[in-house]
Amino acid sequence: MSATAEADPKALVAEAEALAARLAGVREAVGRIIFGQDSVVEQTLITLLSGGHALLVGVPGLGKTRLVETLGTVLGLDAKRVQFTPDLMPADILGSEVLEEGEDGRRHFRFIPGPVFCQLLMADEINRASPRTQSALLQAMQEQRVAVAGVIHPVPTPFHVLATQNPIEQEGTYPLPEAQLDRFLLEVEVSYPDEAAERAMLLATTGAHNPRPHQALTAQELIAAQALIRRIPVAEGVLDAILKLVRNARPEESPLESVRRNLSWGPGPRAAQALMLATRARAVLDGRLSPSVDDVLALAEPVLRHRMALNFAARADGVRLPEVIDTLKGQVA
Questions:
Q1: CA spacing 20 to 30 A to 8: which of 78, 148, 184, 285?
Q2: Cβ neighbours, 10 Å, residue 264
Q3: Could you tell me which InterPro entries the record lists for this protein (predicted)?
């Protein structure tokens, strides 16, 4: 964003309104390809506008892969896909150094970049790879760079990881460690479409002509949008709601007896940072210039559910995380 817009509230409003109009075009372009997943599309776009990464959780066949491919085209990003399997190695993601011999007979190492060197990386079924391979993404997701053989290699900007995970098939999978889960801004739950959306999808995708996505934004425009999102003002009431929601979710210091009884650990400061950015992005995506407490409540579950864990007693009693999060939201509303 320009320095003038940062100093002039009117210029900030004008830029935010222009961005909202562009984002409406983005949603329309995605909506021509993805049917009945409005909430999923919204939360994924919120993640990208916030500069973060998303974990898409849903059973096979709900369009998770198609959504990532569509977003790559619509947003004008260099997108790559990695199918995570038990035999996948870190070098298959990051790249590796190979020994080459020059014309003069001298040998040297040359780095061959892996698929992580892109702008939008789809990590398909990320929990099928070993913890060693999963952790290969940690540095790239947090620092936008990777270290190979002691040499730092920056990844392109913007850089986003959209990972998918099957919630029902656990055989041959490795649960994501807490450190990796915390790197995801949102955990997006992908559910079945309603009947009307599924009917429209059948008619659109089984005919002679399959709809193809078209570009509605560029990578540089996305970077500018991410910078603008960080300039959107947040009211004290919204800030207080975010802090109360996150701090009350920590069993060590929560005033809620149900939280202390049912949770083994809660969200850290990164959850509050995620909520601050995501509420701003949701407001702009909806054409509003200031986030509200309603935005905080709407995003509480996708921000918190992968940053909290039930203890053994709570799982034995059939307690579910959404119930605990609803209790937390009730203290804020």
A1: 285
A2: 13
A3: ATPase_AAA-3, CbbQ/NirQ/NorQ/GpvN, ChlI/MoxR_AAA_lid, P-loop_NTPase
Q: Token match 């990164």: residue?
A: 270
**Contact, 229 vs 295, CB < 8 A?**
no
Q: Where are the domains of the chain?
A: 233-333
Give residue for tokens 């990796």.
180
Residue-by-residue pLDDT tens, the chain, 333 positions = 433 344 577 888 888 888 989 999 999 999 888 888 889 999 999 999 999 999 999 888 788 888 999 999 999 999 999 999 889 999 999 988 888 777 777 887 888 888 999 999 999 999 888 888 888 888 889 889 998 878 898 999 999 999 998 876 666 678 888 888 899 999 999 888 888 888 888 888 887 777 788 999 999 999 999 999 999 999 999 999 999 999 999 999 889 998 999 999 999 999 999 999 999 999 999 988 889 999 999 999 999 999 999 999 999 999 999 999 999 999 886
Q: pTM of this prediction? A: 0.89
d(C-alpha 197, C-alpha 157), whole Å: 34
Q: Which CATH superfamily is domain 233-333 in?
A: Magnesium chelatase subunit I, C-Terminal domain (1.10.8.80)
How is 6-27 classified by DSSP, letter by letter? HH-HHHHHHHHHHHHHHHHHHH
d(CA 56, CA 126) in angstroms, rounded, equals 10
